[in-house]
Amino acid sequence: METTISQKRSRFALEQLERIPVNKDFANLTAGLPAMILGNGFGHALAFLISKATKDGQLSVKEKHYAAFAIIARWLKERGIIPDDEPKPFLTNLSAMSQEQYLRAQDEALLVLEWVKRYANSALFLEEQGETP
């Protein structure tokens, strides 16, 4: 049985959130991320996430900002929009895209983030951490 792209986004979001510690800070970050993307631009928002995930000159892959970046990057790689989900090649590919490809990447990121933020702010994950939505 075939699934819709929306179902695929939903499943992907759930799978990604099961891999990371979801707490209220992460839930708040993902809730505001779509507005940040639309207000500041997709590339700027992703660069911000990587910047915030950098501690003492090293990328902290356990940091909430990196987790948010990684979810977006993995989804865009899975969809075949960007071939690499590691930060530097990902951002290099993003900056070299045509406007049409860039907007497609942004749209897909926003659509998967809708699922991520809904699930991250739900009792499915916050109660596991001893927090309430």
Number of helices: 7
- Catalogue the unreliable spans: none
| Helical content class | 55-70%
Largest sheet: 2 strands, antiparallel
Strand order of the largest sheet: 1-2
Task: Give the helices and strands as they follow along the chain.
Answer: HHHEEHHHH
- What's the overall geometry? globular
Strand content: under 5%
Task: Measure the end-to-end span.
Answer: 34 Å
Question: What is the SS-derived class?
Answer: mainly alpha
Average pLDDT score: 93
Q: Taking Cα atoms only, what radius of gyration do you get, to the nearest Å? A: 14 Å
The beta-strand count equals 2
Q: What layout of secondary structure does this protein have?
A:
Blueprint: H1 5-18, H2 24-40, H3 42-52, E1 54-55, E2 58-59, H4 64-78, H5 87-96, H6 99-120, H7 123-126
Antiparallel strand pairs: 1-2
Commentary on this structure:
With 133 residues, this protein is mostly helical. Helix content is 70%, strand content 3%. It contains 7 helices and 2 strands; from the N terminus they run αααββαααα. It has helices spanning 5-18, 24-40, 42-52, 64-78, 87-96, 99-120, 123-126; strands at 54-55, 58-59. The protein has a two-stranded antiparallel ribbon. Strand 1 (54-55) and strand 2 form a beta hairpin. Helix 3 packs across helix 4 and helix 4 crosses helix 6 (99-120). The longest helix has 22 residues, at 99-120. It is globular and about 40 Å long. The model has no long low-confidence stretch (mean pLDDT 93).
What's this model, at a glance?
This protein has 133 residues and is mainly alpha-helical. The protein has helices at 5-18, 24-40, 42-52, 64-78, 87-96, 99-120, 123-126; strands at 54-55, 58-59.
